[in-house]
């Protein structure tokens, strides 16, 4: 450590020695902790030409030590390239269909005042969407009116299958809420249909779900509910499944989408009831694979080019040098101001950045540029008294400051009221500029004339490095420019790291194929199917895989999935090995038992209590392994808290730059932190989870606003993990452990430690007031309730005495 410090910086190069060319270079930081963990994974994109080169070389050079280097050959001998993609759907030159083509006055009234004719994409797909029950995949650029296309398929259900339910699955809560607000006020109000929201924040009761015509859900929620489809009548009544942003199948949460579709197709097969699938996405490279998996014929496949936009888009890609991220971001602020002045001096502007901190820093730099130009109020478009009134109602101090200059901030750290206010001000044109994190691109519909993407990288906490946004995210951000009903053309400025400029020029309109990432999460999904009874033996698990998108892509792009031979025997061995490995992982976690051979020669698979608990509470199988290892009889609240924070559900909790120093400050606050944490692991997400939960129960102030949002996420997960722990403890007969877990649940719900005075859970009761109440014989909540119940009048008169510090 004395020689190397806490980290070593390496330069990673990808070289083609035959053509004397370097295809990729990046600076990579190897920390002491990463070195202890062993093997590290680096992901990058490089071109491969035909005929295939024999090999490339990956060279790692130390930036600190001479002659410290490593050379790794990348051999392409066994590489199987994916098949070439079929061409996109041609946009036909058709006369736009009028709204009257719906032949229903109620439906036509929904669009009155918005538009009179459907756009070219909607016109071309209209017959299939509205007059048939064909499964549909609609791939089109952002802003092409895909939501209205989805509404056409919903109207088809209302007309032809009125007893069927419609499931709309959106990948983000923000998208779900937008649909709930829009359809709740519009379509459902006009047509007399009922709608329910199904997210982590809202779980409607059974009566509401049975009565609802439309259920709008996040993938996780619908996955959790549809797992027990045999016992849930409303799942069997589904007639239409609409999946928005289905190209996210290749992202982190993609396996959940994949499992939902596979399960709903399985349910349709078991119940002999037709379920129509409608997938909405941006333009896709491999739409035919996705379509074949969804059961879509050529009549229902619409995959338009990214350039087919109702509003033309002008894109500018600017490269910025600089090895380090923060100085490079700072160097983009003046060009961003210049782009606003050139392309959109009077029209709305959206600036996308990678983090909450960047929203503040970018806004402040834009204000500095505006003041330096003697135009500090150029982006404010409301009266001064109105501006003062708006600023007075804002809680966030940074937002209050930037709004005075006509710049709004939008990120997850804002409270709901501030966020809604900013969205409203921007959409109504009261402020001209909105600086937002990338999640806004998927969320609320905030149109802008100019979109500036300030940097295409974000900090990935688990790998502790900056990685690129997926191309789909960049396209989604660009799609916010030039919305159809607002502009004749839009403009996008993409600011990238100089070495990646050519990459973005090449791939911005040639998206990558959507691949499956199910294999990484296969054990958890197999466990759910074992619990539901779909899988009872190893052969069932093999058959289950054939329903998935993963199985389709395995043969199309074998090298991506590490399959070296596509012969039937090799494929069978590969799948068998994958299933066996997943089932053995589940068995070692205590979620299933693998029995003897069944009649067909496949091993029997049965769920255990731990497996049922994991499936019911939507937990990972590795969490059950943590419970098995750490839970025991007679454990107290501090022990339970440590087991809770060790759960793998907290692996993804972000620990950002320098947050280990903030965690150190919290950990040294002995008044707030009563259960000690490992001071050597302050950059560990599980340590941070413990500190946030303890601060919540101590009601201690948090150092930055980001921690408030993080605490909400930690609390959201804690309840289901603790409820699972209660079930595990009860099943094992550990009464003391079960009671301690219930006490911790109560502590987190009330935001107080279990040993604190119960009076402190009441609003406005401070420790001084609690002491004064104790002095008159009301030292805890039951005694206070008893006193209030015995003499209501006395409570009113004594209340003033206690607040004044006197006892009666």
Give a structural overview.
The chain is 44% helix and 15% strand. It is α/β, with parallel strands linked by helices. The strands form five sheets. The protein has a seven-stranded parallel beta sheet, with helices on both faces. Strands 12-19-16-13-15-14 form a six-stranded parallel beta sheet, with helices on both faces. It has a four-stranded antiparallel beta sheet with strand order 2-1-3-4. The longest helix has 28 residues, at 705-732. The radius of gyration is 29 Å and the shape is globular.
Brief account:
The chain is α/β, with parallel strands linked by helices and 808 residues long.
Identify the notable features of this structure and list them briefly.
808 residues; seven-stranded parallel β-sheet; six-stranded parallel β-sheet; 33 helices; 21 strands; 15% strand
Lateral strand order in the biggest sheet: 7-8-6-9-10-5-11
Strand proportion: 15-25%
Helix content: 40-55%
- Note the gap between the termini: 65 Å
Q: What kind of sheet is the major sheet?
A: 7 strands, parallel
Q: Give the structural class.
A: alpha/beta
Radius of gyration (CA) equals 29 Å
Low-confidence stretches: 794-808
Average pLDDT for all residues: 86
Q: What general outline do the C-alpha atoms trace?
A: globular
Helix count equals: 33
């Amino acid at each position: 450590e004395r020689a190397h410090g806490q980290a070593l910086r390496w330069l990673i190069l990808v070289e083609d020695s035959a053509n004397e060319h370097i295809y990729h270079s990046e600076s990579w930081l190897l920390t002491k902790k990463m070195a202890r963990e062993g093997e590290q994974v680096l992901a990058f994109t490089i071109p491969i030409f035909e005929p295939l080169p024999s090999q490339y070389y990956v060279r790692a050079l130390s930036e600190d030590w001479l002659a410290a280097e490593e050379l790794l050959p990348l051999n392409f001998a066994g590489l199987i390239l994916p098949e070439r993609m079929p061409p996109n759907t041609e946009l036909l030159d058709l006369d736009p269909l009028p709204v009257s083509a719906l032949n229903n006055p109620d439906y036509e009234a929904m669009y009155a005042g918005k538009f009179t004719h459907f756009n070219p994409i909607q016109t071309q797909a209209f017959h299939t969407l509205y007059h048939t029950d064909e499964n549909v995949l609609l791939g089109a650029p952002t802003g092409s009116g895909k939501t209205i296309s989805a509404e056409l398929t919903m109207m088809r259900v209302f007309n032809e299958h009125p007893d069927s339910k419609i499931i709309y699955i959106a990948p983000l809560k923000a998208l779900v809420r937008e649909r709930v607000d829009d359809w709740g006020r519009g379509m459902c109000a006009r047509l007399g249909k009922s709608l329910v929201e199904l997210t982590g924040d809202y779980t409607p009761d059974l009566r509401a779900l049975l009565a609802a015509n439309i259920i709008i859900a996040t993938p996780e929620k619908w996955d959790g509910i549809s797992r027990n489809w045999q016992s849930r009548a409303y799942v069997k009544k589904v007639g239409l499944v609409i999946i928005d942003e289905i190209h996210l199948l290749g992202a982190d949460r993609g396996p959940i989408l994949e499992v939902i579709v596979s399960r709903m197709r399985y349910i349709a097969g078991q119940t002999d009831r037709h379920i129509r699938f409608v997938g909405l996405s941006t333009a896709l490279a491999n739409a035919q694979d996705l379509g074949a998996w969804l059961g879509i014929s050529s009549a229902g496949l619409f995959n338009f080019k990214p350039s087919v936009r109702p509003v033309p888009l002008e894109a500018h890609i600017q490269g910025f040098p600089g090895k380090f991220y923060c100085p490079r971001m700072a160097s983009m602020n003046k060009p961003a101001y210049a782009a606003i002045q050139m392309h959109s001096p009077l029209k709305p502007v959206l600036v996308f950045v990678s983090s909450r901190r960047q929203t503040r820093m970018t806004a402040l730099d834009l204000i500095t540029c505006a003041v330096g130009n003697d135009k500090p109020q150029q982006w404010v478009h409301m009266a001064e008294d109105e501006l003062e009134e708006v600023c007075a109602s804002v809680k966030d101090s940074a937002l209050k400051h930037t709004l005075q200059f006509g710049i709004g901030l939008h990120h997850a750290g804002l409270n709901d009221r501030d966020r809604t206010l900013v969205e409203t001000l921007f959409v109504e044109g009261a402020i001209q500029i909105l600086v937002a994190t990338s999640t806004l691109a998927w969320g609320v519909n905030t149109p802008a004339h100019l979109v500036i993407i300030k940097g295409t990288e974000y900090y990935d906490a688990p790998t502790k490095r900056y990685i690129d946004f997926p191309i789909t995210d960049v396209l989604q951000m660009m799609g916010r420019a030039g919305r159809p009903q607002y502009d004749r053309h839009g403009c996008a400025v993409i600011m990238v790291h100089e070495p990646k400029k050519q990459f973005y020029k090449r791939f911005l309109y040639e998206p990558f194929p959507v691949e499956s990432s199910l294999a990484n999460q296969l054990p958890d999904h197999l466990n759910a199917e074992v619990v539901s009874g779909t899988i009872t033996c190893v052969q069932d698990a093999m058959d289950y895989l054939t329903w998935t998108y993963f199985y389709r892509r395995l043969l199309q792009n074998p090298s991506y999935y590490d399959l070296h031979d596509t012969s039937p025997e090799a494929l069978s061995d590969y799948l068998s090995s994958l299933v066996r490995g997943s089932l053995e992982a589940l068995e070692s976690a205590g979620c299933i038992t693998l029995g003897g051979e069944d009649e067909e020669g496949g091993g029997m698979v049965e769920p255990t209590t731990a497996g049922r608990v994991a499936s019911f509470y939507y937990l990972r199988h590795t969490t059950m392994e943590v419970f098995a290892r750490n839970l025991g009889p007679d454990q107290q609240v501090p022990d339970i808290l440590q087991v809770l924070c060790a759960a793998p559900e907290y692996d993804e909790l972000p620990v950002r730059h320098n947050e280990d120093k903030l965690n150190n400050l919290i950990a040294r606050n002995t008044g707030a932190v009563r259960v000690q944490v490992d001071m050597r692991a302050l950059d560990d997400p599980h340590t941070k989870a413990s500190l946030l939960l303890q601060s919540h129960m101590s009601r201690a102030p948090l150092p930055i606003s980001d921690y408030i949002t993080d605490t909400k996420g930690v609390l959201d997960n804690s309840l289901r993990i603790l409820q699972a722990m209660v079930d595990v403890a009860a099943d094992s007969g550990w009464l003391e452990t079960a009671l301690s877990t219930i006490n911790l649940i109560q502590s987190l719900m009330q935001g107080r430690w279990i040993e604190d005075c119960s009076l402190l859970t009441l609003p406005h009761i401070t420790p001084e007031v609690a002491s004064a109440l104790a002095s008159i014989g009301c030292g805890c909540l039951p005694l206070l309730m008893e006193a209030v119940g015995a003499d209501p009048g006395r409570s009113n008169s004594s209340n003033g005495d206690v607040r004044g510090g006197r006892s009666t």
